[in-house]
Write a structure and sequence with these properties.
Elements lengths: L1 H31 L5 E5 L2 E8 L3 E6 L7 H4 L2 H5 L3 E6 L15 H14 L6 E5 L1 H12 L6 E5 L12 H6 L4 H11 L2 H12 L8 H5 L7 H21 L10 E6 L11 H7 L3 E6 L6 H4 L1 H14 L3
Parallel strand pairs: 3-4, 3-5, 5-6, 6-7, 7-8
Antiparallel strand pairs: 1-2, 2-4
Helix pairs in contact: 1-7, 4-5, 5-10
Length: 311
Amino acid sequence: MKWVIGLALVLAAFWALTLWKAARHERLAEAEFPPSGQFLTVNGHRVHYTEMGQGRPLVLIHGLSGNIRDMTFSLMPRLAERYRVIAFDRPGMGYTPPMGGATITEQANLLADAAAALGAERPIVMGHSYGGAVALAWAVHRPDDLSALVLEASPAYPWEGPMPPLYRVNSGPLAALAVPLITAWVPDRVVDQAIADTFAPQDEVPGYAEHIGAPLSLRRSALRANAQHRAGLLDQIRALVPQYPDIPVPIELIHGTADTTVGLSIHAEPFIRDVPQANLTRLDGIGHMIHNTRPGAVVEAIHRAALRSRM
């Protein structure tokens, strides 16, 4: 019996230490990478955003595990020469608080309402990766609230294969245990390596990891939100597919042929077969992080969408 009590005390002490370390890790991350933009409240929900430039409104939506810093690294300053560019933290990421499970449609509605609150009427909407799925939901469900759609390396069709273990655990019944353990004990360099892997086959752009604020993605709220978003994505994409041909605005897709995160042949190529108003730009040998490895190509895709939407 004594050993049982002793074990219980050890486990209780370890869990208390884990919660303390998790909270400390979060405080350090937020001190090193504080909010870089401003806040507005939309439908009772606080939204973190940043904007720069003047001209036609353009909304940028980041992918999984990211935040608005992903867009401000190199893409947003280029676009600000011609557009009024607004980047939002999606719910649960960066400094926009979570919204429960937050489907891509719920996120799209929040960001569309936030853009409207900022006076950005019928913006061009560009989404990268998971953010592209949110942009697709915006175009399907709020077609009068955008003028053109740009999808960069975005999922658009159902795919085969299991959900990655990290997302499966963090969105399931073990999340209450797993998430604090990850926040407390996983070093930031693990996230840095995951970022580098996302750039493959290109090298990570120098200075990107320091700019993006990788430790923010290890916060407990971000880990939970990220996992919930990924866990629900397949079914949410499946529900959107039949409505793609009805999207009334011009659509530009840009996708790397070497993207192993979101496969070109699974997503972008079927999309242009099914959607007459969609145009696809293939980048030979380029991976998933096009807006940071080939930002000029993304800028050109946005320019094409802007031109087409004026015709």
